[in-house]
Structures are given as C-alpha cells and as structure tokens.
Amino acid sequence: MPPRAHQPRRRDALFSRAGRSSGYRVGQYGSMSQPHSLPDNDPRPVPPEPPLPSDCCDSGCDPCVNDSYSDELQLYRERLAKWLARHPGEA
Prior knowledge:
With 91 residues, this protein is an all-alpha fold. The protein has one domain (10-29, 37-90). The chain is built from two helices and no strands. It has helices at 10-14, 65-86. The model is unreliable at 7-35 (pLDDT under 50). Residues 46-83 form the Oxidoreductase-like domain. InterPro entries: Oxidoreductase-like_N, OXLD1. It comes from Luteimonas terricola. Residues 1-56 are annotated as: Disordered.
C-alpha cells in the first residue's frame, strides 16, 4: 500500500523541496579515517547566570531558584574541567 499523502517519505524527510539537505552532512565533524578527532567547534563552557535576589520568593519552593543555580554551577564546573583537559594551554 502506498504511503498516505500526509506522511513524508524518507527522502522527503531528509531533503527540503529545494533539494537541500536538512542540515546534517556526512563527514561534518571529520573524516571516517579519524573517528576520535575533536570537532572544529569546541567552545569554552559558559557559566550559568546567577539568579537575581528578587528571583527567590523565600517561600521554600522545591526546587528553589538558588538550588537550581547551584546545580547548574556544579555542572558548569564539571564541563569546564573536561574542556580544560582537552585544551591544556587555555587555562
């Protein structure tokens, strides 16, 4: 049975009507001969923005915006440590 008209076929899902790719390119992050190479774009992690004092309502919310910030800050520190390990001269 042919596909229904409202369901795109696989080729239609990969290419737009103009024939352009949806954005994914084979080999976008290096050749197959270098599977463990880093992508060209490996930016330094950006620290989370701290909440304003007025962001906390002091009513004991779970999670509080300050708790969420603390979790995000810990994740940032972990990501930064991994990034610095990949870029030892950037400290």
